[in-house]
Amino acid sequence: MINSKIREDKLETLVSRSAVPIIDLAHCGKSLVHRVGQQLHKAFTEKGIAFLVNHGIAEDKIKAVWDQFDNFLDLPAEIQDRHRRKDGVNYGYVSPGMERFDGSTPELRHAYNVCKLDEQNIPREALPELAEDITTLCTDLKAMSLFIMKAMEVALEIPPSFFVDKHSQMLEGDDLNMSTLRMLYYPAIVDDEPGQSEGAIRCGAHVDYGTFTLLAQDSEGGLEVQLPGSEKWERVGHLPGAILINGGELLSIWTKQRYHALPHRVVIPEQELIRTRGRHSIAYFCHPNNSILISPNDLLGEGEAKSEDKVYSAYELIQKKFNDTYGQRSQ
After folding, report:
1. What is the per-residue DSSP string for 76-99?
2. Distance between CA atoms of residues 323 and 100, nearest Å
3. Which of 181, 211, 175 shows the shortest CA–CA distance to 89?
């Protein structure tokens, strides 16, 4: 056990190598949006990810939602089934194995998607406190997302409110906007249970679909990325209290691939002390309104636009991704 602990202490990650940009949101003033915008621009063009620190979202708020999801997973199966994600919608409970990002590999993960703060999306009757805790956290993550969009508008030198206006219906329902708060729990892997993790993964390789993702996690749990220009999978590591941001596919299309949509996955860690404990995370997937047309021409200067670039709505683009992931249409 001592030797195992020493090996885990020496686990090399992007965090241990200081290879992930860190953006401090603490300082107030008129220059904050400009500074953060420039730092995000550099991070998205060079790495595709960054850590946000001093972001103002209390750890207690995040932990409260993790605790509530644990309570949901302790409910009887028949109650969980009432809230299971159904074909045609994006909200609800997703049990291990329902999602397969590579189309075949079983994924050991519990998830619960919230697209709107209403009775349909949240199991209020079974867990009355869950709705309050999620609403509080969603309010903070939505506000952070709007600030990030304003910072990107400055960095990209595009009209004010370009992004903000196109994301005006976040968390008003997946029929209007696919933005989603996702609670995640990766169960502990117990080696004395034969076949528990054989041929499985915690989350298959993929890029996120939307504009960007905000991720809070409680520990190192196997998150890996492929940095731009590399096919090597590298462990990210854990920076306590930080929120990880990564760009999504729609943002990459909008910026004509100047901003990277980073491939990532969550593997079953080889380190015993990591694999034998459960891992919580919360992801906030920021999406444009479904009706918004996504065109790289929007952010190009005069003379740069190309008429042959095909234009899709945000809804059309994400539906293809859901079809790939679930083997059926989401809506």
Report:
1. -HHHHHHTB--TT-S-EEE-TTS-
2. 11
3. 175
Spell out the residues 6+ positions from residue 319 whose beta carbon is closer than 8 angstroms to its own: 329, 330, 331
Structure tokens at 280: 């919580």
Tokens at 97, concatenated: 């194995």
Identify the architecture of domain 36-326 in CATH: Sandwich (2.60)
- d(Cα 88, Cα 48) in Å, to the nearest integer? 31
The C-alpha atoms of residue 140 and residue 135 are separated, in whole angstroms, by 9
CA-atom Rg of the chain in angstroms: 20
What pLDDT shows up at residue 302? 46
Q: What is the pLDDT of residue 66?
A: 96
Q: Tell me the pTM.
A: 0.90
pLDDT in tens, 285-328: 999 999 999 988 887 654 455 545 667 799 988 887 776 665 54
Residue extents of the structural domains in the chain: 36-326
Tokens standing for residue 121: 């999306």
The one-letter amino acid at 167: H
Q: What is the dihedral of CA 23, 28, 32, 33, to 10 degrees?
A: 100
Give per-residue pLDDT as tens, 152-199: 999 999 999 999 999 999 999 999 999 999 999 999 987 655 455 566
In the DSSP assignment, the letter for residue 196 is S
